[in-house]
Amino acid sequence: MEVRPHRKINRKKTREIKVGKITVGGNSSISVQSMTNTLTTDIKATIKQIHSLEEAGVDIVRVSCPDEGSTKALKDIIKEVKVPIVADIHFHYKRAIEAAEMGASCLRINPGNIGNNDRILEVVKAAKDNNCSIRIGVNAGSLDKNILEKYKEPCPEALVESAQYNIKLLEDNDFFNFKISVKSSDIFLTVKAYKQLSKICNYPLHLGVTEAGGLLTGSIKSSIGIGQLLMDGIGDTIRVSLSSDPVDEVKTGYEILKSLGIRSRGVNIISCPSCARQAFPVIETVNALEKKLSHIKEPINLSIIGCVVNGPGEAAQTDIGLTGGGQDSNLLYLSGVPHTKVVSAKIIDKVVQLVEEKIKEKK
């Protein structure tokens, strides 16, 4: 998608790190992450889910490692997938060490529940020895008890202080291959914490509103929180946390990036909500097109507008445009130029045909 001058985002340039083959920070693209919800010990199910996420375009996948069986399973899982795997570690530092040894590309540790400093340092050593990055995952729901006693409740300052403490801990041990998150389920708390941290920190930031909720509510909360930060140039990698199929997290992540002109994947449909002026059933048409074009990975923009009020103007800005016309005389545009008329019953087949032809031309 072409980024128009008035929409250009001046992104803060952070330190560049590696998560397996993916670069995070620096001048790299903002990566989209998700997390499996299978039992990690069910190796076949976990691999199958990661393959589904890869098909959806995920860049990095996190896998929960609550026990030794899970960390040992990583070795077989990693051999069968293409994307870097982040081991999600809570409560037991030995799981982090095992995950690094099994080939994880990154260790996600929550300083509030991983253990004392000595144990964190053992995790750092394992990461160094196995060329593994780390994510410092500060979360409002599991802050260190000393910080909670100081601030009485989770607040932006508490999250940032926790992040600073752990940054220093890693730096003092000559470890710099890490990124940071300061998440909360509260949008205001999340946004303020990230903004404060971005002012004092040059490490790449992993954005997300944690425990955001179901598909609809979680997508809305995540779009508001992540979107605000991205528009301010903050953020290097994102994860939309939904109580839904993990593939939905990836799709929503890309929609957030597409809406800001940051990164495109697949078909972007601009469509009207429909009204009494519509010359064809807009809602049914858009739903059908989304399903029939879901296999498209290359970025392409469509406008599906039910009447001539905004139709020609939107068509001028998209690869393929459709404007509803009277007497079953709808007009299709290619790159903003009128192309052909199409009756309502033929719209879906004709648009699909034009999209596939356009994709072949781009290749």
Q: What is the topological layout?
A:
Elements: E1 17-19, E2 22-24, E3 31-35, H1 43-56, E4 60-64, H2 68-79, E5 85-89, H3 93-102, E6 106-109, H4 117-129, E7 133-139, H5 145-151, H6 156-172, E8 178-183, H7 187-200, E9 206-207, H8 215-231, E10 237-239, H9 246-259, E11 267-271, H10 282-292, E12 300-305, H11 311-315, E13 320-323, E14 330-334, E15 337-342, H12 347-362
Helix pairs in contact: 1-2, 1-9, 2-3, 3-4, 5-6, 6-7, 7-8, 8-9, 10-12
Task: Give structural notes.
Helix 10 (282-292) links the parallel strand 11 (267-271) and strand 12. Strands 8-7-6-5-4-3-10-9 form an 8-stranded parallel beta sheet. It is of the alpha/beta class and 363 residues long. The protein has 2 domains: 9-259, Dihydropteroate synthase-like (TIM Barrel, Alpha-Beta Barrel), CATH 3.20.20; 267-362, Sulfite Reductase Hemoprotein, domain 1 (2-Layer Sandwich). The model has no long low-confidence stretch (mean pLDDT 93). Helices cover 41% and strands 19% of the residues.
Mean pLDDT figure = 93
Strand sequence of the main sheet, in spatial order? Answer: 8-7-6-5-4-3-10-9
Shape: elongated
Helix content: 40-55%
Q: Give me the secondary-structure category.
A: alpha/beta
Instruction: Tally the structural domains.
Output: 2
Describe the largest sheet.
8 strands, parallel
**Distance N to C terminus:** 15 Å
Could you give me the name of the CATH homologous superfamily of the largest domain?
A: Dihydropteroate synthase-like
Provide the CATH topology of the largest domain. Answer: TIM Barrel
Strand content: 15-25%
- Report the total helices: 12
CATH class of the largest domain: Alpha Beta
CATH architecture of the largest domain: Alpha-Beta Barrel
Report the count of strand segments.
Answer: 15
Q: What is the H/E order?
A: EEEHEHEHEHEHHEHEHEHEHEHEEEH
Radius of gyration: 23 Å
Model regions low in confidence, pLDDT < 50 over at least 5 residues: none
